[in-house]
Specification:
five-stranded antiparallel β-sheet; alpha+beta; 90 residues; 33% strand
Length: 90
Amino acid sequence: MNEIIIKRASYPHLLSHPFALFGGSCEYPSGGWSDYEMSYITLDEATEAGKKLIKPYSTWAHVVDLRTMKIVAEGLHFYPDGQNGWSLVA
């Protein structure tokens, strides 16, 4: 718990941009912060960026609320028909 508090204090912009977008390939996941893309002010901004990220670069994406450290939205690129799926996580 103290480690999280130190990281938040070290990166004050994370509190003003609390929705972090992570994404990657199912074939080559880096895991954790290695899959971090960008932080956004609103959930809508983060999910829109996630939808764009999934199509050309990634097979999955998660949006994490850095205030609660929980996944609040996720997306998948489905093969072989190329359909994208995006949903908010309850």
